[in-house]
Amino acid sequence: MIKAVRGTRDLLPPDTALWNFVEATVRDVFRAYNFHEIRTPIFESTELFARGVGEETDIVAKEMFTWEDRGRAESDKGQSLTLRPENTAGIVRAYIEHKMWDRGLNKFFSIGPMFRRERPQKGRYRQFFQIDAEIIGPPSVGSESPARDAEILELVTTLLDRVGIAGWTLELNSVGCPADRVKFNEALRAALHPVVGKMCADCQRRAITNPLRVLDCKVPEDQPIIETLPRISQFLDEACRTHFEQVKEILNAVGIPYTLNERLVRGLDYYTRTAFEFTHGALGAQNAILGGGRYDGLAEALGSPQPAPGIGFAIGEDRLVLSLAATAESVQRKPDVYIAPLGAGMDREAAKLARELRRSNKDLVVELGDESFRKLKKSFEAADKMGARYILIVGENEVKADAFALKHLATGQQVTVPRAELAKRIAHANGA
Ligand code: HAM
Q1: Are residues 338 and 318 in the same domain?
Q2: Residue of 82, 129, 149, 260 with fewest CB within 10 Å of its CB?
Q3: Atom 16 in ligand 1: which residue has the minimum CA distance?
Q4: Do the domain assignments include residue 4?
Q5: What is the per-residue pLDDT across 255-303, written as a single tens digit (0 to 9) for each?
């Protein structure tokens, strides 16, 4: 038997109803905040991620699905391609490629699969889905403003409320600008020098290549040492400090609670200033539902001829669905009516009726049985099993009278309804 590849999974009904509920809800929220959908390719040139996300990050160093193109055209041969591990770099690439700075402030969202070669476990997959939002634009339209950071964070809380996730924690930090980080990295290197020998192998490597990443370490034995390391807040310059204060002031004013976490440096190199994660207790070890932050230098690092500061976040949709209180059953639409043809030649009549009902009210869920069942009892069983609200009996007498027996399955109540009134009658009790 051929099975789905390790770390990938099939999303099956009824769970897909939950996914659709989440996506429909977030689309509504994005519309209300004037965000517009962008769809970028799921593979890009490897260089985009190497330059965008950073060569020294775990994502680029260990987790990407990369291959060399075997294209027929000479120009394609040997090109290194990668399944996108995240979508901020792709969106910024598209922004530059299509010279979107002329359009002022761009608010984008995208929903789609990402790929990382991580060790699979609950909430961590090799193909997973992200709901991504980005605000990008030239500084002249306020893309650098702390108002944007606060707007993005407020948007996240509205999204979580609307899909029904309570009990989240917003962890917030400022990682400063690149110059602040150079100083911070130097201080970290110096502080790590005498103690790093006692730390895990990853930390020993990071202490040399990218000391900031030591703060991401989850190894319990390393934690007491990490607690003694310098803090990024001591290295923020005046402008970064003020920016962060202003973000916090707006969050306080709109009533969004947050926890400051100075160790939150995020696993991608493009971040500047505001960095954040939303965590949720229901998730266990992989507790980040979403992460994001500001990336003021990314566009230029990817070749933009002009600055395009930005800020955004990506929700792990798999994890969001895992932390939902709603169940698939509660959001899945069951058939409003099961049409049961009774007797020879009735498939034709039932098909006509199904078409009429489906066309007269697009919100009705109509299931069509078939006359091979012969006995009405079997149709009733089928209707019951799928949770239909009504069963509609289509027999010779009904067709002659042009009025049909409509039985409410829960109450057993049966009425005869003229063809012209059927759709209204079925929709009525449902509000459909
Ligand atoms: P990230 O923190 O790498 O950020 O990923 C965002 C979210 O994607 C995580 O919080 C998590 O919920 C989900 N996620 C990541 N890896 C996996 C996995 N292997 N399985 C399941 N879920 C996963 C980014 O990707 C940035 N591009 C976010 C961003 C947008 N920053 C600015 N704009």
Answers
A1: no
A2: 260
A3: 124
A4: no
A5: 999 999 999 999 899 999 999 999 998 777 778 999 999 999 999 999 9
Domain that holds residue 94: 15-177+237-327
pTM of the model: 0.92
Domain boundary residue among 297, 327, 357?
327
User: Ligand 1: does its nearest atom lie under 6 Å from the Cβ of 271?
Assistant: no
Query: Distance from the CA of 431 to the center of ligand 1, in angstroms?
Result: 39
**Smallest CA separation from ligand 1 atom 12, residue:** 316
State phi, psi for 407 to the nearest 5 degrees: -115, 130
Looking at the fold, whether 262 and 358 belong to one and the same domain comes out as: no
Does a structural domain hold residue 195? no
**CA-CA-CA-CA dihedral for 132, 138, 142, 146, to nearest 10:** 50
Q: How many domains does the chain have?
A: 2
* 24 occurs within a structural domain: yes
**CA–centroid distance, residue 33 to ligand 1 (Å):** 22
Cβ-proximal residues to 22 (8 Å cutoff; 6+ apart), any chain: 131, 163, 317, 320, 321, 324
Contacts of 421 (CB under 8 A, 6+ apart): none
Q: Quick one: residue 276, left, alpha or beta (phi over 0 = left, psi -120 to 50 = alpha)?
A: beta
